[in-house]
């Protein structure tokens, strides 16, 4: 699939010298949902702002729909909708006008049918004449999405769409995102929530310290999550893994009191039975066994720790 957004060696140093982006490369495919996962201060908002032309990079280049964000700013900005983290709506304005004005700001001719369609799609149809101040927090977030879609962008950036939102509303937002994807919009969202990335993304990018550490298909991540670990507690510490068990690639704990065996739950055989027999044959006595499923969270925490 062709890239709709292409980010090459992107750098951003803020005045004062702090480098929030340190050479980011990222290809976003048309029609996908990409989740950018990263801890506070990782550079997610800076990356989005730079692609949207709000923040000027100090190095590298970005194209959107083939246009350069610096030399063809207008063309790229027209292709992008941005849903910001903060709710910044005019409280006394109606929902319809809020969204329709936003379209006007992009120089697009008035199109009430289109605005009504997105309001319906976001379940705001019956609120179109309500004032913003009369809406719940969840509805205000939907208005932000409607505003971002008002000029018919092809790419939608959602910056922490469900931060501070309750579980039910979060699921609601996930449904909205899935519907937008079905309507052909490419979606990039930033999130702290690993389960959010797991639930809705096609691909997941992990960002930390201004660098993209990994971008992977969610299904590949699922395959990684298929890995399980068996922790074997021993009655006596071992100084090293016995040579007879070398084939199992066991990890020895620092105190020598346990060994961890990693196996693939998707495989035909786990190898556990033979391992336990070989352990006994090597003269080791077990006091306990524990299994642990590695999750996207483990992968994420491990990656972020490595680069901390
Ligand atoms: N205008 C600015 N001037 C100086 N430093 C900034 C500025 N904006 C952001 N930073 C710094 O750049 C780093 C990345 O910030 P950014 O907001 O992009 O992170 P983030 O991943 O979006 O974090 P969060 O999840 O907390 O929103 C942070 O260390 C932040 O303090």
UniProtKB/TrEMBL annotation:
<keyword id="KW-0813">Transport</keyword>
<protein>
    <submittedName>
        <fullName>ABC-2 type transport system ATP-binding protein</fullName>
    </submittedName>
</protein>
<dbReference type="InterPro" id="IPR003439">
    <property type="entry name" value="ABC_transporter-like_ATP-bd"/>
</dbReference>
<dbReference type="GO" id="GO:0016887">
    <property type="term" value="F:ATP hydrolysis activity"/>
</dbReference>
<keyword id="KW-0067">ATP-binding</keyword>
<dbReference type="InterPro" id="IPR003593">
    <property type="entry name" value="AAA+_ATPase"/>
</dbReference>
<dbReference type="Pfam" id="PF00005">
    <property type="entry name" value="ABC_tran"/>
</dbReference>
<keyword id="KW-0547">Nucleotide-binding</keyword>
<dbReference type="InterPro" id="IPR050763">
    <property type="entry name" value="ABC_transporter_ATP-binding"/>
</dbReference>
<feature type="domain" description="ABC transporter">
    <location>
        <begin position="5"/>
        <end position="234"/>
    </location>
</feature>
<dbReference type="InterPro" id="IPR017871">
    <property type="entry name" value="ABC_transporter-like_CS"/>
</dbReference>
<dbReference type="InterPro" id="IPR027417">
    <property type="entry name" value="P-loop_NTPase"/>
</dbReference>
<dbReference type="GO" id="GO:0005524">
    <property type="term" value="F:ATP binding"/>
</dbReference>
């Amino acid at each position: 699939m062709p890239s709709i957004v292409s980010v090459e060696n992107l750098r951003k140093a803020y005045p004062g010298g702090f480098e929030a982006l340190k050479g980011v490369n990222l290809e976003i495919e048309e029609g996908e949902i990409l989740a950018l996962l990263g801890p506070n201060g990782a550079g997610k908002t800076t990356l989005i702002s730079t692609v949207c032309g709000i923040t000027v990079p100090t190095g590298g280049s970005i194209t959107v729909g083939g246009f350069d964000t610096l030399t063809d700013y207008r063309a790229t900005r027209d292709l992008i909708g941005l849903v910001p983290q903060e709710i910044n709506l005019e409280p006394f304005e109606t929902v319809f006008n809020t969204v329709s004005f936003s379209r006007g700001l992009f120089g697009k001719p008035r199109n009430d049918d289109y605005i009504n369609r997105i309001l319906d799609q976001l379940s705001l149809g019956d609120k179109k004449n309500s004032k913003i101040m009369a809406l719940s927090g969840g509805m205000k977030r939907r208005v932000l999405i409607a505003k971002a879609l008002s000029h018919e962008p092809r790419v939608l950036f959602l910056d922490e769409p469900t931060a501070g939102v309750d579980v039910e509303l979060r699921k609601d937002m996930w449904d909205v995102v899935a519907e937008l994807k079905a309507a052909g919009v490419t979606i990039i969202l930033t999130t702290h929530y690993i389960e959010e990335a797991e639930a809705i993304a096609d691909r997941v990018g992990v960002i930390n310290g201004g660098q993209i550490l990994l971008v992977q298909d969610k299904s590949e991540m699922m395959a990684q999550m298929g890995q399980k670990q068996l922790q074997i507690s021993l009655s006596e510490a071992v100084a090293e893994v016995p040579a007879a068990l070398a084939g199992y690639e066991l990890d020895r704990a620092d105190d020598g009191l346990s060994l961890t065996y990693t196996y693939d739950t998707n495989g035909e055989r786990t190898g556990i039975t033979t391992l336990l027999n070989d352990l006994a044959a090597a003269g080791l006595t077990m006091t306990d066994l524990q299994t642990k499923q590695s999750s996207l969270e483990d992968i994420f925490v491990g990656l972020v720790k490595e680069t901390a």
